[in-house]
Amino acid sequence: MSVTGKNVADLRAQTLFDLRGRVAVVTGGATGIGLMCAQTLSQNGAKVYIVGRRMEALQAAAKLYGQGLSSGGSIVPIQADVTDQSSIDTLAATLTKQESKLDFLINNASIAGPKSEIEKAEESAEALVRELKKETMDEWADVFRTNVTAPFFVAVALLPLLSKASQQDHGFSAGIVNIASISGITRTSQHHVAYNVSKAATIQLNAMMAQEFSKPGVKVRANAICPGIFPSEMTTDGSGKDQKSFIDTKDGQWGKEKGIPAGRPGKEEDMAGAVLNLCTNQYCNNAQIVIDGGYLLVNG
């Protein structure tokens, strides 16, 4: 086969996104965006450990979507609390016993935190203060512990395994994907100040990970996805028996009232394309991919 022929074959989708033999960890992987990521990686051949506090939800997701896959991939539940250092250490120890390396880490676990109707408090400073005081310092601490602190300490704990994947496979570098949000980019509060500030911090954390982890002796990439509105337990009333959340995509007001040019919330396929790109594209480091249907074009 000629060099040209070989290059053409390498550009096929099944080659570009072939994850057979790869190992991944997805925090908050039992529902919502985390489950979308776990399904995407496993459907393309990876062994995916989904991590969360609710073992029942993890087992249900693994049973529904991670067994007998034609891709050769799988989904394996592993219980851990990413806001607790001892639990993170146990997670790292367990994975180190079971795997010789880790190719991908998806830092997805997140909470919304307190909400306040700031936009409605326009008549006076006092009215604005009344709304803002509905949020407490303890609630802010919880949001940052889950959305910013946890991704950092999980990444640090799993960095040796990630680095081993990079060192073992010439020309390959393991990747961390931090799930941030357009809420960390938009200038508006969207009724949840703490969440938005935490996601801005996640984006900055991603940049620092990319810088510090790219050293030759470590060689691990870090990239961020900033989703708009996707169905999850954060944006809906919860999950169904299929571990998934539902948003009515037939609502004609998505474009007008919600200001999304695409006229709909995000789909699993939208998230899948972004995750596969950042995991497999070895030239992506400190990238920030916005997938929001154009929300920031209208509401930036």
Concise overview:
The protein is an alpha/beta fold. The protein has helices at residues 3-10, 13-16, 32-43, 55-65, 85-98, 125-132, 137-168, 193-213, 268-280, 295-299, and strands spanning 23-27, 47-52, 74-79, 104-107, 174-179, 220-227, 288-291.
Question: Descriptors for this entry?
Answer:
Rossmann fold, 300 residues
CATH class: Alpha Beta
Largest sheet, order of strands side by side?
3-2-1-4-5-6-7
- Number of domain modules: 1
Output the radius of gyration. Answer: 20 Å
Q: What shape does the CA trace take?
A: globular
In CATH, the architecture is 3-Layer(aba) Sandwich
| CATH fold type | Rossmann fold
- The fraction of residues in strands falls at 5-15%
- Write the H/E string, N to C: HHEHEHEHEHHEHEHEH
CATH homologous superfamily, by name?
NAD(P)-binding Rossmann-like Domain
- The biggest beta sheet, please? 7 strands, parallel
Helix content: 40-55%
**SS class:** alpha/beta
The low-confidence parts are none
Q: Give the tally of β-strands.
A: 7
Q: Can you count the helices?
A: 10
* Distance between the first and last residues' Cα: 50 Å
Explain what the structure shows.
With 300 residues, this protein is an alpha/beta fold. It has one domain (18-299): Rossmann fold, CATH 3.40.50.720. Helix content is 43%, strand content 13%. It has 10 helices and 7 strands. The protein has helices at 3-10, 13-16, 32-43, 55-65, 85-98, 125-132, 137-168, 193-213, 268-280, 295-299, and strands at residues 23-27, 47-52, 74-79, 104-107, 174-179, 220-227, 288-291. It has a 7-stranded parallel β-sheet with strand order 3-2-1-4-5-6-7, with helices on both faces. Strand 6 (220-227), helix 9 (268-280) and strand 7 form a beta-alpha-beta unit. Helix 3 packs across helix 9 and helix 7 packs parallel to helix 8 (193-213). The N and C termini lie far apart (50 Å). The model has no long low-confidence stretch (mean pLDDT 91).
